[in-house]
Amino acid sequence: MGSLKITLVKSTIKAKQDQKATAAALGLRRLGQTVEKKDNPQIRGMIEKISHLVSVEEV
Predict the structure, then answer these.
(1) pTM of the prediction?
(2) What are 23-44's pLDDT values in tens digits?
(3) d(CA 11, CA 53)
């Protein structure tokens, strides 16, 4: 499996508490911040939960 570049493109201010926690667990704290994570089912599930807040590209 490869890796994923995940970028926070929308603010978490009005997001639900569990969505804020998911973004924080991915390491996304600031708007525009990008993190690189290994591609696995757990990370894919987290991305699915906050898909409206992030953009994802495969590396």
Answers:
(1) 0.92
(2) 999 999 999 999 999 999 999 9
(3) 7
Query: Which tokens sit at 8?
Result: 């926070």
CA 14 – CA 35 distance, rounded (Å)? 22
Structure tokens at 17: 């508490």
Structure tokens at 33: 């911040």
CATH of region 3-58, choose from 3.30.1390.20, 3.40.190.10, 3.30.559.10, 3.40.50.620: 3.30.1390.20
* Residue whose pair of structure tokens reads 């667990």 in the numeric block: 25
Helix crossing, 41-49 with 17-25: angle to 10°?
Answer: 140
Q: Quick count: other Cβ atoms within 10 Å of Cβ 26?
A: 20
